[in-house]
Design a protein that fits this description.
The complex is a heterodimer of chains A (about 100) and B (about 220).
Chain A (H helix, E strand, L loop, with lengths): L2 H24 L6 H24 L9 H14 L4 H18 L1
Helix pairs in contact in A: 3-4
Chain B lengths: L5 H28 L4 H10 L3 H12 L4 H12 L2 H7 L8 H8 L4 H6 L9 H25 L14 H10 L6 H17 L7 H7 L10
Classes of the chains: A mainly alpha (about 100), B mainly alpha (about 220).
Chain lengths: ~100, ~220
């Protein structure tokens, strides 16, 4: 088996295991009480981290670029109570425009 | 709250599906230049189905970084799926195999849109959104890997900014309580602090630990 296929197999197996650990081991049953408080805060914590890593993330560095302008535009759209589609589109268009002119 | 359907999840994720196809094409092209043939790239998208980890693998293989480095980087990047999958575990019913298969539709975006305003996760939203993203990602990869020509750099179209905008839009309605706001601020701060010093993926897992402020003694 070539190096490429070994990587495809190992990464696939690891990811399938990581994604299924909750549903396979705990699936279909309500979470224990002491876990529900923790789990309800997982979304805000992870979403905030995803926003940060995707807007200023680089290769082991913080990169400030046109993505920040896009996120700023998204904030304005959110303040105007725009629907999700508009928020995402505004962010992409603003970022593309900045890259076009810079 | 009204009954949700798979279609609601598909509709919610539609704008991001456009970005997913474009990034899928980019992954297919990048994988080709990194020495992965079209079949390997497409099989990887169908089995791993996690964009950032796959881009990391392609760039490491392209730089002759070796099997171990590629697998380690991808596993670190996907480690967040362990707590994420636990958070939605109650949604998955039926036999083990069905739960295993359905859980593969969990990605950041499908998970994020499946959270309803009342704080619970919705199975149909997750599966509907996940299927649309899965098809977009795998088809995009195949097009890029076989066609070999990018439709254009997704960054030129600003599509890399679509993802943080989506996550922010989904985060805002969730920080209505003081605890949720504290978890978001803490998670964001931890990610920002670790970003320059750790391998990709580590900032997100560390930020996930911010949810432990919700721990209650069993």
């Amino acid at each position: 088996m070539s190096e490429v296929w070994i990587v495809v197999a190992l990464v696939g197996a690891a990811t399938i295991a990581l994604k299924s650990v909750g549903p396979v081991l705990l699936g279909g049953r309500p979470l224990p009480d002491h876990l529900t408080g923790v789990v309800s805060l997982l979304a805000p914590a992870v979403l905030a981290a995803l926003v940060v890593t995707q807007v200023v993330g680089g290769d082991r560095e913080i990169v400030l670029d046109a993505r920040l302008v896009g996120l700023g535009a998204a904030v304005v759209a959110l303040l105007l109570r725009a629907p999700l589609l508009a928020v995402v589109a505004v962010a992409a268009v603003a970022t593309a425009l900045v890259r076009l002119v810079s | 709250m009204r009954v949700t359907r798979y279609r609601d999840g598909a509709r919610a994720i539609a704008p991001i599906a456009v970005a997913a196809v474009t990034f899928g094409v980019s992954f297919g092209v990048l994988a080709g230049s990194a020495g992965m043939d079209a079949l390997a790239a497409t099989v990887m998208s169908a089995t791993t189905f996690a964009g950032s980890a796959q881009f990391a693998v392609a760039s490491i293989l392209g730089a002759s970084g070796g099997v171990a480095a590629a697998v380690l980087a991808a596993t670190l990047l996907n480690a967040r799926y362990a707590p994420i999958s636990v958070s939605v575990a109650p949604l998955f019913e039926g036999g083990r195999l069905r739960r295993l298969l359905e859980s593969q539709l969990i990605v950041d975006e499908s998970w994020a849109v499946s959270r309803r305003a009342d704080g619970r996760f919705d199975h149909k939203l997750l599966v509907g959104a996940g299927l649309v993203l899965y098809v977009s990602w795998v088809a995009g990869t195949a097009i890029g890997a076989i066609g070999g020509e990018a439709l254009g750099d997704p960054a030129d179209l600003g599509l890399d900014a679509a993802f943080p905008a989506l996550f922010l839009a989904l985060l805002v309605p969730q920080v209505r309580t003081r605890r949720a706001l504290a978890a978001a601020v803490l998670g964001g701060a931890v990610a920002l602090l670790l970003l320059p010093f750790t391998a990709a993926g580590v900032p997100i897992i560390a930020a996930a630990a911010a949810c432990l402020i919700g721990w209650r003694r069993p």
